[in-house]
Structure formats: C-alpha cells, structure tokens
Design goal:
The complex is a heterodimer. Chain A is an all-beta fold. Chain A contains no helices and twelve strands. Chain A starts with a strand and ends with a strand. Classes of the chains: A mainly beta, B mainly beta.
Chain lengths: 115, 115
Amino acid sequence: AQSVTQLDSQVPVFEEAPVELRCNYSSSVSVYLFWYVQYPNQGLQLLLKYLSGSTLVESINGFEAEFNKSQTSFHLRKPSVHISDTAEYFCAVSDDGGSNYKLTFGKGTLLTVNP
Amino acid sequence: GAGVSQSPRYKVAKRGQDVALRCDPISGHVSLFWYQQALGQGPEFLTYFQNEAQLDKSGLPSDRFFAERPEGSVSTLKIQRTQQEDSAVYLCASSLALGGGYGYTFGSGTRLTVV
C-alpha cells in the first residue's frame, strides 16, 4: 500500500515569487508519481508525471517536479507564479505494476497567488 | 465528447434515498474510474472498469454502493439508502490506455449532499 503526505495545506505567495509545494510518499514498491491541479468548480487536470527516466519533469506552463528516490519526495516548483496559478494541487502515486490504475492522492495544497 | 461529462453536477438527497450518478467518458476510452472526494481530502479510489468489466471494486465503502458500465461506455454509480457520510464529490475519470498509470482525464464531479 502507498501513502502520500502533502506537508502544507495552504501556501500563500505573491505574484512573481517562486513557490515549492512539498510531497512525500511511502511505498514498498517502485512507483509512478503525478501532480494534478484542480481549479475552482473544475475536475482534476494532470499537470505532470514521472514514470521513468529523467528524474526532473516539466509541465507546459512552467512547473517542474523532481523525483528523489532516496528522500521519497516529488516536490513541485515554479520560479515565478501568476495569479492564474491559484488552485488546489494534489500529489498522487501509483505502483508501476499490475495495480498502476489505482492512484493514491494526498490531501492537497491550496496555492493562493496574491497581487 | 471532448471531455468526461458527469451529471448531475449537484445532488441533494434525503437520508435513506437512493441516488444514481452518471458518467460519460471520452469516446474510445477503455478504462473508467470512480473516485470519492470528501471535503478537505484528496480523492479516494472506488472502482475501475476496463470496457464493461469491473476489474476492481475494492474501494467501494459498503454494499450500498454499486457501479456498472454495461456497454463499455457510460457508467452509473448508484448509492442505496444514502447516509450523511456519503456526502462528497464523486469524480469519474477515463483513460485511453489499459490501466491508468499514464494519467487520467477527470470529469468535474457530482457533489452529493445528504441531508
């Protein structure tokens, strides 16, 4: 079984500031890792994913996350945030085997970008 | 369709009432998933279909919950004799790939309130 811990439930930042949303996971097997974003009144959207290969993965809108196996972390970063990045961000994990369809989510981090 | 469509968006049910929640996945997506998202929590896995076959229903919280996908397209999640603890957002997701380890497309969810 896996578990995901998102260490911050809320992160307020000012526009154009850098941000890091922290995610740690626990698993006894190899994993796939995901970040999903949920804008108000919308469904979850896949932001980026780590399946294998390069441990640094990037999204099209400037976010990046780095898989750190030794620290069992997959923190999400952006060097300069915009007002439009205000949303709830969920880290998720699945195993990389036969149950890879089953995602385990963290409780989410609400990112609020202020002008 | 262009995305995963769920209906109704909002449902208020009296305790003890039966409800049915509908999901229209993206056309051609073979994998379909239901998740439950309680207030302030991340989504939790309920069940998984591959075409019309329900391959995993381990996350259904009780025998009052039942899901079906008879023709391998539209799915219905039914909750019998609703209880207050069933109040949550119910999310449907679909995936083109068998399994889901490559990321899902989520619908906007149905918010169920049991009064």
